[in-house]
UniProtKB/TrEMBL annotation:
Membrane-spanning residues: none
Name of the protein described by the UniProt record: Family 43 glycosylhydrolase
Classification lineage: Bacteria, Bacillati, Actinomycetota, Actinomycetes, Pseudonocardiales
Domain of life: Bacteria
InterPro entries: ConA-like_dom_sf, Glyco_hydro_43, Glyco_hydro_beta-prop_sf, Glycosyl_Hydrlase_43
Family: Belongs to the glycosyl hydrolase 43 family.
Record carries keyword Ion transport: no
Length: 466
């Protein structure tokens, strides 16, 4: 599979099914609201319906909310995840409707680590499983838990150390046909990423590794999707099985560069001699036009809009239909395509605003508009350079395009309006391979001072030819 089912910085997918409907959660790191939730009836077409963690703050780049697990049990949806920006342990939220509202978090103290998972046994006891990363503890441990209070009911027990690859993490535990199956991510979330599995009759083990491990990896291949791993299994409504997993689409000269972050992909699964066998060709996922136009007609934001470190509601308000007033802060949405065009119309008569494409707070390209000028700026690590300044008015239209070309993944063109190009720049400096971290490109508006009115935002998918 080369087309993601959920494109653009949607890593660490976790999936569950209720009746004929599937629900999927992704990690969100510093962006708030956190943990986006999507819904589908066919596993291929997905709709963003909300977020499980709407109330977060103080999150730093590539910190915050790591990998969640989404499960449904006894009429409740459960999300368990880790906010690595605090030290209160894993957190659990619940909801009757996955579009919200979600409960306040219940924390699980004394469970240092990441990537928690919830699984219920045949007696209805819930088990919390996680990756410890402690030098004095086995890498993957599990303990029975009361998921509504966060109280562990017994001491953690070790499960499996993995197949021998680096960084065993991302555990998902399943009770299937009298076996306990443990699915892991191994090899790190970069080019060596892989999915492995083991099974045991009881949680006391021993866990037997699958003879075909890893059951999914693209390492050391020329496949256009790389870094494949961190998977989750789901039993489908027709009795078949499927797997969601993360991957990236690197482009350009070696070592190749991925810019939209880790995205969510889909594969089929067959059970052969009691082991999952992955079929990457089972599902056909056609490219989709993900273009949209926002004119902000009322006092509610589409769930596509997020902000680094604080909820958008902390700095957004409506003066009138079509006039979203932004105070100091940053309102952004994910880049969903390899090539795209985005534009905004701003009123900067009462402030200074920047239209930008951002990987993190040290790697971004932007157009900063005041009441009399627009400045084109590149930030690459410690180097921040103004490359062009042109006169303009207080009602300004700005455009950024991701274009094919160059030795990197793309070229980024920054323009005043649709015709005055202020520069075309190498896109590799806004890639994870250069900047590091766990996120992907975001596009949006940052207010530097005063207030700015955002009147229109346009995003257009571009498929190879403009």
């Amino acid at each position: 599979m080369t087309v993601p089912i959920i494109p653009g910085f949607h890593p660490d997918p976790s999936i569950c099914r209720v009746g004929g409907t599937y629900y999927l959660a992704n990690s969100s790191f510093e962006y708030v609201p956190g943990v986006p939730i999507h819904r589908s009836t066919d596993l291929v077409n997905w709709e963003l319906i909300g977020h499980a963690l709407p109330r977060l703050g103080g999150l730093r780049p590539s910190r915050g909310v790591f990998a969640p697990t989404l499960r449904h049990h006894d009429g409740l949806f459960h999300v368990v995840t880790t906010n690595v920006s605090d030290d209160r342990g894993h957190l659990i939220v619940t909801a009757e409707d996955p579009s919200g509202p979600w409960s306040d978090p219940v924390h699980v103290p004394g469970t240092g680590g990441i990537d928690p998972d919830l699984c219920w046994d045949d007696d209805g006891v819930c088990h919390l499983t996680w990756a410890t990363f402690s030098p004095t503890s086995p890498p993957i441990v599990s303990a029975p838990i009361d998921p509504l209070s966060g109280v562990l009911l017994d001491d953690p027990r070790p499960l499996w150390t993995g197949s021998g690859l680096a960084y065993p993490e991302g555990p998902h535990l399943y009770r299937i046909d009298g076996w306990w199956y443990l699915l892991l991510a191994e090899g790190g979330t970069e080019r060596g990423h892989a999915v492995t599995v083991a099974r045991a009759r009881t949680l006391d083990g021993p866990f037997e590794p699958a003879p075909g491990n890893p059951v999914l990896t693209h390492r050391s291949t020329t496949h256009p999707v790389q870094n494949t791993g961190h998977a989750d299994l789901v039993s489908c409504a027709d009795g078949s099985w499927a797997m969601v997993y993360l991957g990236v689409r690197p482009r350009g000269v070696t070592p190749s560069f991925h810019v939209n972050g880790r995205e969510t992909f889909l594969a089929g699964v067959d059970w052969v001699d009691g082991w999952p066998v992955v079929d990457e060709s089972r599902f056909a996922v056609p490219p989709r036009d993900r273009s949209f136009v926002e004119v902000f007609p009322d006092s509610s934001l589409d769930p596509r809009w997020v902000s680094p470190g604080a909820p958008p509601s902390s700095f957004c308000r409506w003066d009138s239909p079509g006039s979203l007033v932004l105070g100091p802060g940053m309102l952004v949405t994910r880049a969903l395509d390899e090539l795209w065009t985005a534009s905004v119309r701003l009123d900067v008569s009462s402030g200074v605003g920047r239209f930008l494409v951002r990987l993190d707070d040290r790697h971004w390209y932007g157009l900063t508009a005041s009441s009399d000028s627009v400045t084109c700026t590149l930030a690459v690590g410690p180097s921040v350079s103004d490359v062009a300044v042109v006169p303009s008015g207080s009602d300004v239209s700005l455009r950024i395009r991701a274009l094919a070309g160059g030795d990197g993944p793309d070229l980024l063109e920054l323009s005043l309006g649709s015709s005055r190009v202020l520069g075309v720049f190498d896109g590799r400096y806004l890639s994870t391979e250069v900047a590091g971290g766990f996120t992907g490109r975001m596009i949006g508006v940052e207010v530097l001072s005063g207030s700015v009115v955002l009147r229109e935002f346009r995003y257009r998918s571009v498929h190879l030819v403009e």
